[in-house]
Structure to design on (347 residues):
């Protein structure tokens, strides 16, 4: 099923591509994005691990780098991206509730179940409290999901992050580490909301010129996220060897259960298969760049490690799950067509 308004795929910033009029070429562009980005981030993480001294003192630059990513996201947005909220308020509200209930709750449960250290537990919970992930729209498209719903939920979850992420983090992670929710609100406003608004305003004023560079923005954002991951990994390189497997297990459980429960929420609400596929990715994929920035600023580089690992893994798992969902959707469509032909012949 092709999305009706393909420019919406410009909405997200790490791996989005313009989906061309040809479905085949659009699939190739999106697959290239979700394939290259995890490899790029993985290479950046390896560089940070092998040469941590090269990134010494860069930790204070992480919020500015995230601001650049969010400004690029604002440049890819138009007022049309908000129309879906008005047209389908119930579905968007369900997506927001599912996202901000399931992922924070899972983060808290996983931290307790695995007995994570306070720093790692706070990092996992913070990932869960972040808004929707920046590759979710493209992955939803690959899964033959409801892209319009995906765009709406992702947009609103990002806009509401300053109001929701800090108090949720205080509630769930406060037992592990002190959380300054007020300072976190300020940081999210400065590094997320204001850059997004600035990008949107620039797009509205200079759209004719911005359109010429839209295709480069996802890759600029991908490179910036990769640098953030390298800085985060370098800052906790000494602790990674002892904690890497445990962190990876926590991330896989967090992401996998989020995808499954997000899909289940869509099914229970009877939103239909395409919308349920969109819900899976809007719940299970997180803005790990924001989580890494906040963890570095408010906790420690070690607390940002789950976000760095999540940044790689959720793109890999998202691409794999999207391919599986797309295959199932095609088979279902084929069976439906075959049954319709049989009924036509019998008539």
């Amino acid at each position: 099923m092709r999305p009706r308004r393909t420019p919406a795929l410009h909405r997200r910033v790490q791996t989005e591509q313009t989906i061309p009029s040809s479905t085949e070429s659009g699939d190739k562009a999106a697959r290239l994005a979700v394939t290259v980005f995890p490899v790029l981030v993985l290479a950046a993480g390896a560089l940070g691990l092998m040469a941590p001294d090269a990134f010494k003192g860069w930790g204070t630059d992480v919020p500015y780098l995230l601001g650049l990513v969010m400004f690029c996201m604002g440049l890819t947005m138009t007022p049309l991206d908000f129309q879906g909220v008005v047209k389908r308020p119930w579905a968007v509200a369900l997506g927001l509730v599912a996202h901000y209930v399931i992922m924070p709750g899972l983060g808290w449960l996983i931290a307790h179940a695995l007995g994570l250290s306070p720093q790692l537990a706070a990092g996992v919970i913070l990932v869960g409290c972040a808004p929707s992930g920046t590759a979710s729209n493209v992955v939803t498209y690959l899964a033959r999901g409801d892209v319009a719903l995906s765009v709406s939920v992702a947009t609103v979850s990002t806009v509401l992050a300053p109001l929701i992420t800090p108090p949720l983090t205080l509630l769930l992670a406060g037992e592990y580490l002190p959380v300054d929710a007020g300072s976190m609100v300020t940081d999210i406003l400065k590094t997320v909301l204001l850059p997004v608004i600035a990008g949107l305003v620039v797009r509205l004023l200079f759209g004719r010129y911005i359109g010429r560079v839209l295709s480069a923005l996802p890759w600029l954002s991908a490179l910036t996220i990769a640098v953030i991951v390298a800085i985060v990994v370098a800052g906790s390189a000494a602790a990674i060897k002892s904690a890497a497997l445990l962190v990876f297990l926590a991330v896989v459980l967090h992401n996998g259960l989020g995808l499954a429960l997000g899909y289940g929420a869509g099914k229970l609400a009877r939103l239909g298969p395409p919308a349920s596929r969109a819900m899976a990715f809007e719940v299970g994929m997180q803005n790990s760049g924001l989580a890494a920035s906040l963890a570095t600023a408010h906790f420690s580089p070690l607390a940002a490690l789950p976000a760095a690992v999540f940044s790689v893994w959720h793109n890999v798992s998202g691409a794999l799950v999207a391919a599986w969902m797309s295959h199932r959707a095609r088979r279902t469509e084929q069976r439906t067509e075959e049954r319709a032909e049989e009924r036509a012949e019998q008539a």
User: Anything to note?
Assistant: The two ends are 28 Å apart (CA to CA). The first helix runs from residue 23 to 50.
